[in-house]
Amino acid sequence: MEPLSLHFLHEQAGAHFLEVGGREVAADYGDSEAEYRAARASVALHDASYRETLRITGEDRSSFLHGMVTQEVKALPTGAAAYAAMITAKGAMVADARILKREADLLLDVEPGTLAKVKDFLEKYLISEDAELQDVTGEWALLRLLGPRTAEVLGAALGAAFEPLAANASREATLAGAGVLLVGQPAFEKHGVDVLVPRGALEAVWKALVQAGGVHGLKPLGFGALELLRVEAGVPRYGQDMVDTTIPLEANLTQAISYNKGCYIGQEVIARATFRGHMNRKLTGLLLGEVKAAPGTELRKGEKKVGWLTSVVRSPATGQQVALGYVHRDHLEPGTELTLAEGPTVKVAALPFA
């Protein structure tokens, strides 16, 4: 397991640790619900430096990647980010990524444990293009601020008023003496901002944000609380809710797909499914009440298997156990009652939960 660069700081803060994709993450700091409340009501700081970063350089970098992902790349403005999927010729997912277009390169922010697979997939199709792929996880790290007081914390840390960032927009800044990139991150919480930090400056930037956030109620946010926010928002995570047999449309990844960009690997499958107007199954929400169930648990309608659970959390916003899961298209109507393999009844719910 690859340890967190700031392991000792998290340990001092009372963190417990777990492994995700072969990398260490801070699971919690003793009270996941307090961390969750900070992200909802004030501000929370998550160390996402376990995520992996791929850099693409070369004159053909944009046109090459454009033909490899579901999202527009060539027309993406410099300084903008976009969420995309990489899929096989049969339409199954290889991984997802956030693509950040900078003046001299493209950066792909991917889930821990997936960079090697992404790099192999891209290199398979890299023949004559002027493009070079490099693992720069050791050079860059990601910190994530969430909560309505994010702008106040950033303003205090930067020494100037922070103008809110639009979704997927970026802005260069100097924080704790280091050049960082601020990226609008709307997936879990509309005020959120990601801070892309040179790994050598990670400790200084973390401490500066913690100090600036003290008067605003900032708490460090563990992976468990981040998962609560993610599931309540109905956002699937690759490796948990999406695997290498998932078709992006099944996981509701319409925001990752451009229908005007031209050819890319797997486009025909996406086009056929879109023209057909439905997928056989889709990711949806499930209300479990007080029933505790594990990911992978079957969902049934009568004697027929119609789906399975992928993520399960106890949602503070709904006051009950909730889940993400795949359900056959005939049973996606909110309020539809299904049974778990063990017998209890659960209900289909619209996403997001909160």
Automatic annotation (TrEMBL):
Residues 281-341 form the Aminomethyltransferase C-terminal domain. InterPro entries: GcvT/YgfZ/DmdA (IPR028896), GcvT/YgfZ_C (IPR029043), GcvT_C (IPR013977), GCVT_N (IPR006222), TrmE/GcvT-like (IPR027266), YgfZ/GCV_T_CS (IPR017703). Keywords: Transit peptide. Residues 6-261 form the GCVT N-terminal domain. This is Glycine cleavage T C-terminal barrel domain-containing protein.
